[in-house]
Write a structure and sequence with these properties.
This protein is mainly alpha-helical. It contains eight helices and four strands. The longest helix has 25 residues.
Length: about 210
């Protein structure tokens, strides 16, 4: 049996299991605490059954879902062969993980944010980058050790700081426009923000 065929079968069974349980939970009627506890015990018992199948190397418990998925995908694997045994073992192990995941979701424990919440959050970050009360997305690590000065006057009081819209001078007081351009480009890259959103003042170390 090809590895790709085994992957299709096992993943297909797990995906079906998770989708079916997610839908059942979403449209299910209200239940009492006792009913919820009973279903949690059923999930735990199912997990132990799968664990015992691996312990005893008896995979009859997954025979029906494997047959169904093989027929759906048009893949042939003869029962009783090493290929069947390997497929049954991997399916049992994957279903054990899936059952534990279903039990967690049934308790309201999810390993990732809602896809709808994440989509909204990503859209806000890409559109504005900042909320009215502060950043939505975390600042780049290099930028976190800096702060934006409030005014050009404040910038002039900080040694080594140059207001964003001013041209630096060398030790003889001569303007060095090339250095200013290079400095501005460097800070702009660190900030990873459009030029229009960067205040006309410099960034200084705290």
């Amino acid at each position: 049996m090809l590895h790709t065929d085994m992957e299709q079968v096992v993943m297909g069974i797990v995906q079906w299991k998770l989708r079916d349980e997610d839908r059942r939970r979403a449209i299910g009627l209200p239940r009492s605490p006792a009913d919820a506890a009973r279903e949690q015990r059923e999930y735990a018992a199912a997990t132990e059954t799968l664990r015992e199948a691996i312990l005893l190397r008896n995979y009859d418990v997954v025979r029906d879902p494997i047959r169904h998925m093989l027929g759906k995908l048009g893949i042939e694997v003869q029962e009783g062969t090493e290929a069947w045994q390997e497929l049954a073992h991997e399916t049992t192990r994957a279903l054990m993980d899936a059952t534990e995941e279903v039990a967690r979701r049934d308790r309201g424990e999810f390993q990732a944010p809602s896809v709808y919440f994440q989509s909204v959050r990503n859209a806000e970050c890409s559109q504005t980058g900042f909320a009215k009360t502060g950043p939505i997305c975390p600042l780049p690590q290099k930028l976190q050790s800096h702060r934006i000065l409030d005014t050009p006057a404040e910038a002039s009081l900080k040694p080594g700081c140059i207001p964003w819209n001013e041209t630096p001078t060398d030790s003889f007081g001569r303007q060095n426009s090339g250095a200013a351009s290079k400095s501005n480009e460097s800070v702009s890259r660190e900030a990873s923000l459009p030029a229009s959103t960067i205040p006309p003042y410099c960034l200084c170390q705290r």
